[in-house]
Each structure stands twice: as structure tokens, then as C-alpha cells.
Amino acid sequence: MDVSNDEPRTRDFFDEFGFTVPVAFDAGQSVAGRSFGVIGTPTNYLPDASGRIVWRHYGYRPGDEIAVRQKVEGLLEDG
Question: Which CA distances in Å does 76 have to 49, 61, 63, 79?
Fold first, then answer.
């Protein structure tokens, strides 16, 4: 879900990098905040194989990708 106010820029970004996942736009953040508990961006959710959210991460600092990788690898090992 994109909470920016620049839908064309987001679509251009998706096109440039070949992303094919669907994206929803919520410029006012009414859905993101209320329905998904987004308190900052980026907000990342990691679902398990059944679709249950097992981990959330808010914001970004260099090195955060290490924690994300560890969580993903752990879920893949657990099946």
C-alpha cells in the first residue's frame, strides 16, 4: 500500500523495476492506519505460510535488512 501523494511516481517506480505485485493507494492514510496499524513508513509485514502476520517492522535504518532476512529465513526453515 502506498501512502504517498504521488501515484504516478509510484507507478513509474514499479514499472522501472518490473514489480508486478498489486499496489493500493491510500494518500490520506485512513485505511493504512486504521486497518493495518501503520504508524510510519516504511511499514513491513511478514506473513507465515497461512497468511497470519508474524512480524512487523516500522521505519528504516541501515542494517535493518539483516533482521528482515533473518526473519524470512527462519520462517522458510519452519516451513
Answer: 9, 24, 21, 5
Cell reading at 70:
533473518
The model's pTM: 0.62
Which residues have a Cβ under 8 Å from the Cβ of 45 and sit 6 or more positions away? 36, 53, 55, 56
Structure confidence by residue, pLDDT tens digits, 23-60: 888 888 888 888 877 887 888 888 888 989 999 888 88
Q: Is the peptide bond before 8 cis (omega within 30 degrees of 0)?
A: no
What's the rounded Cα separation, in Å, for the pair 17 and 44?
19
Identify the residue whose cell numbers are 511499514.
Answer: 43
Strands, E assignment, the chain: 43-47, 53-58
Neighbour-count burial of 10, counting CB atoms closer than 10 A to its CB (0-12 exposed, 13-18 middle, 19+ buried) = middle
